[in-house]
Every structure is written in structure tokens, then in C-alpha cells.
Design goal:
The protein is mainly beta. It is 0% helix and 48% strand. It is built from no helices and 34 strands. Strands 1, 2, 32, 33 and 34 form a five-stranded antiparallel β-sheet that branches. Strands 27, 28, 29, 30 and 31 form a five-stranded antiparallel β-sheet that branches. A hairpin with a 5-residue loop joins strand 25 and strand 26 (260-267).
Length: 390
């Protein structure tokens, strides 16, 4: 697999959170960056730019903005952006207007005593219009805000997981068409929880007790993908461990009956392991980078012993783990980043059919893309999927 470093793009001071989606529905992935200075920057993918993106569009609002997410909140067919505000006890919704425009941010209260940190979007009540799932970092509580036809929100179910919540997503893992809730928490004892969804007669969803497993992490993130090629989506959890150790990549397989099993545990690769140094994980992304039909993983790492693309110290590396169906192996090459990444993600930003990689650097306030120029690998036949009983 081969990648070429794109020209870095300056973004608002101290970017901290990154998300990707095709916001303007032009077939190119776009990037959303949230800064600790309470700015949201949108960079649209570009077929011609050396950076792989257009110039950032910047919006300033809120008090302590946290991890964003995207989805069609008001069911008009246009992608919207939702951003939690940890100081306001609320989330901000930016409704898409098409042609790369958004309405002014609208504040949706969650609770005066809550500190929203992460958000997910999905149709929980089954009446159309996506609902908003909000996670609080301190308590680990997950609150569902149900969307009504008039775009007002009412209280939905509340779920509990461990404090230190870092990320939540609303995704169909087992292929039954119902979105599970997935949360990951870090701390002295971290936890990953999967809340199984069950459909009621009226179309609404209820969530059962979570299937949970602990992690030893001071920082954690996850990505999903069908890593074993059996038709269900699995979890790849990246845990930053304490002390002089490499970060740990844990793969958890999911099954049609909602069960989650432990499949694989690997050390994140470190290009300078021979010098007795270790690499700290800074984000994970899943995509079929070599286009062989099996999902691969990209892991952002900080490594003070390596030189960046311009010869600077304290740079970073995005290590590629090539999927083999039953395991992951380190790829022969990895793209170098000019600065250590704060987070990474993936998407086809230039429209050539290859998933690229994008990273943000908090220390230098830069966004940098890695253009994928890999040749297609051999196609792998998918395993036959076992359909769940109805």
C-alpha cells in the first residue's frame, strides 16, 4: 500500500476532534474539525487540490465544543452536523441547506446538570427524523433525545456505562437492520459497551443490558468494519496503555445473535521499537485501503524518534494494518505526518475510488491528508453470511 503526503492545511487553533462524511453529497468525502477554541471548520474534498480539500469554512459558536457527528436529523435528505457543548448542557445542530450551506446553529437542551461530550444520530423511535443520542463524559450516562415532527425534542431512554466516556456511535452491527448503541470509556479502568436493539410493534427501539468488556487505557477510540468478512460489523478498539508500552489493538467479533466475542489482541506497530521507545496511539480508522475486499486499519501514532516529511522532530506516523480475514499484519509502508496526530479518519477525498487518510495536529493547528495511490489487490471472496432467525 502506497500513500503520498498531501500539503498541510492550516485550521483553527488547537484542533481536537475530527469527523468525515460526504456532507454536500458530491461523491467526495469531506472533513469536519472542531477546535478547543469553539470553532467548527468544514473542508470539502477536492479532485484537484494538492491538499485534497477546499479552503476551510469556519463557524464560531458555543462554549466548550466536543466530538461532532453527522446525519440527517430533520429527514430532508440533506446531511446535518451535531456538536455537543460540554459547558451548556446541550448540543448544537447545524441543519444542512444544500450547496455547501448550513443554517445558523440551533441549541438543543439535554439537561442543565449534564456535560455532553459525544453524540450519535439514529432513528430510535421509528417515526422518521433521526434522534440524537448524547453521552456524558463524567457519569457515563447516555441520554436519548427523541425528535418530533416539528423538530422539537423530548426525553427518551437513559442508559448507563462507565465514566470517562470518549465516543458513542449508533450502528447496525449484526445486520438485522436495527442500530446498536456502542460506547467506549477510558480511565483507570476503561470499558466498551454494546447495547443491543430490539424493535417494538410500533417501530420504536428498546435497548437491553449492554455486553461490556474492560480495557486498560488512558485514552481509547474505536472503529467498525466487517474485519472477518462474515457479513456482520466488528469492533476495533484502540487503547492507549500506561507506562512505557505500545498501545493495544483489540478486535471484537459480533454475531447475528448480538453476542460479542474476543477475537484478537495485538500491539500497535511501532517503527522505532528497536531503540526501546514506544508509540502512543492517536486514533484509528477502518477502510479497504488496498481494495482487496478485506477491511484494513490505519492507526495514528506519535513517535519522537522519527523525522517528519519536512525533516522535523516530534512528527507522527500512520501505521497501516493490512486485514487478512482472521488477523492483521503490519503493512510494508506507512505514511509520515509532519506533526504528531491528535486524531485520524479516512475517506475518498479526491474521488479516485481509493480511501485516503486525514489527520489533525493539535500542536501545530494543521490538517494533513495522505493520498492513497495503491494498486488494487486480489479480490477476496466473502464468507457466506448466516441470517439471524426471525
Amino acid at each position: 500500500m502506497l500513500f503520498v503526503a498531501g500539503q498541510p492545511v492550516p485550521v483553527s487553533s488547537r484542533p481536537r476532534y475530527l469527523a468525515t462524511d460526504d456532507i454536500d453529497q458530491d461523491g467526495l468525502a469531506d472533513a469536519i474539525v472542531v477546535s478547543t477554541r469553539d470553532t467548527l471548520s468544514i473542508l470539502y474534498g477536492s479532485e484537484t487540490s494538492q491538499t485534497l480539500f477546499s479552503a476551510p469554512q469556519v463557524v464560531t459558536f458555543g462554549r466548550r465544543l466536543r466530538r461532532p457527528n453527522t446525519g440527517d436529523v430533520n429527514a430532508d435528505g440533506i446531511t446535518d452536523i451535531v456538536v455537543p457543548d460540554e459547558s451548556s448542557g446541550a448540543v448544537w445542530v447545524l441543519l444542512g441547506e444544500g450547496t455547501r450551506g448550513f443554517a445558523a446553529p440551533r441549541l438543543i437542551p439535554v439537561g442543565s446538570k449534564m456535560r455532553p461530550y459525544a453524540v450519535a444520530i439514529g432513528d430510535i423511535d421509528g417515526i422518521g427524523g433521526n434522534d440524537i443520542v448524547v453521552g456524558e463524559r463524567r457519569s457515563g450516562q447516555i441520554h436519548v433525545r427523541l425528535n418530533t415532527a416539528a423538530f422539537s425534542f423530548r426525553n427518551g431512554p437513559v442508559m448507563n456505562t462507565r465514566g470517562g466516556l470518549e465516543q458513542i456511535e449508533c450502528e447496525d452491527l449484526n445486520g438485522d437492520g436495527l442500530p446498536e448503541l456502542i460506547s467506549v470509556s477510558a480511565g483507570r479502568v476503561g470499558r466498551v459497551s454494546v447495547f443491543p436493539a430490539t424493535a417494538q410493534a410500533n417501530g420504536s427501539l428498546t435497548y437491553g443490558d449492554p455486553m461490556s468488556f474492560n480495557t486498560d487505557s488512558t485514552k481509547a477510540s474505536f472503529a467498525t468494519g466487517d474485519f472477518d468478512n462474515n457479513g456482520t460489523r466488528d469492533l476495533a478498539v484502540l487503547s492507549r496503555t500506561r507506562g512505557g508500552k505500545n498501545s493495544i489493538l483489540g478486535i471484537r467479533s459480533t454475531n447475528p445473535d448480538h453476542s460479542v466475542g474476543a477475537s484478537l489482541s495485538l500491539e500497535a506497530p511501532c517503527p522505532d521499537q528497536g531503540r526501546r521507545r514506544f508509540c502512543r496511539a492517536r486514533g484509528i480508522a477502518a477502510a479497504d485501503f488496498d481494495r482487496d475486499g478485506i477491511i484494513d486499519l490505519a492507526i495514528g501514532l506519535r513517535n519522537r524518534a522519527v523525522l517528519g516529511a519536512l525533516g522535523t522532530r516530534r512528527s507522527g506516523v500512520v501505521a497501516i494494518m493490512r486485514g487478512r480475514g482472521d488477523t492483521f499484519v503490519a503493512a510494508d509502508s506507512a505514511p509520515w505526518l509532519e506533526k504528531a496526530p491528535a486524531e485520524i479518519d479516512s475517506g475518498d477525498f479526491d474521488g479516485d475510488g481509493r480511501p485516503d487518510i486525514v489527520a489533525i495536529s493539535k500542536s501545530s493547528s494543521l490538517l494533513q491528508a495522505m493520498r492513497n495511490i495503491s494498486s488494487p489487490g486480489p479480490t477476496v471472496r466473502r464468507k457466506r453470511r448466516v441470517e439471524p432467525r426471525r
